[in-house]
Amino acid sequence: MAKKKVVVGMSGGVDSSVAAYLLKEQGYEVTGVTMRLWQEDAEREASGQECCSLGAVEDARRVCAKLDIPFYVMNFADDFKRSVVDYFVEEYIKGRTPNPCIACNRYVKWESLLRRAMEIGADCIATGHYARIVKRDNGRFAVAASKTARKDQTYALYSLTQEQLSRTRMPVGEYTKDEIRALAEKIGLTVAAKPDSQEICFIPDHDHGAFIERIAGEKAPGSGNFVTADGEILGRHKGITHYTIGQRKGLNLAMGYPVFVSQIRPDTNEVVIGGPNDVFAKEFIAQNVQYMGVPGIEPGSRFPVKIRYGHKGAAAALYPQGEGLVRFVFDEPQRAITPGQAAVFYDGECVAGGGVICSCNFAGDVI
Question: Is 358 an active-site residue?
Fold first, then answer.
């Protein structure tokens, strides 16, 4: 029987490198591919700060040479600009806080890479994500929690389709991070101790507001007013793209007590300021909801729900509203439910589905 062919997306880091090794050990015919995603600034690219930098490409190339597998660099810069960077900028201008990694996973690391992999004769693709892909008793594929909860990455993978999941391998999900590093060292990979990337890959200096202003130009919102919920002007802000729900630092408001961003109003270019209790809510609406581990839900179905990557999850009842909209009602108020972020709900250790938060009323009224 011919070996199955797999294309491994390689970032130059330890996780994807070990993923390639594990798949080769499992009998796959492995090809390593590094995706060139962001080429706006050649000087920054050469610095090696980005996951698709020249340094990362060379790290991946050395790993593939060590493993004796083919290596290619594929250019997905146009797809990345359109589906990730433009989306990121447009969402911030609308007063939302997007998660670019989720968009990149769905439309670039899977849709674009999988299409290219199929064109060169591969059967499937693989990544170094800390998650597992399982086929459930109901016949559906789902992303399941990895062996190590500390590195679980299921939240950012909720939007993958059944077809994409059926053609994906995630071997790293069966190991802890320490085990992966130890394995990399054992087989002599130079990236064994390489630190993880912690920033948005195309904004290594963390200043997303300045990045948006540079990319959007005249379309970027300018300064406006900090206001209370009832419209009292408290001061001036430097542009709504610099703020997110729940933010406390960087407001430069001398109120004499802690204040937070409780709402962003793009139509009036206002940032609403409130106290600690004003950033808690029980209800929100999510749009573009997709189902993964379940085919659908009945009104009132209950699931644990995560509203951002670092959120531990909380119990909620879900009410489909039609046209991809779902109303989420938490048992207890949650802090900083943020439009633009993903709401992902779980059935046991598997992702049941998820969508994008589009509205939330922090005053506690029904929405």
Answer: no
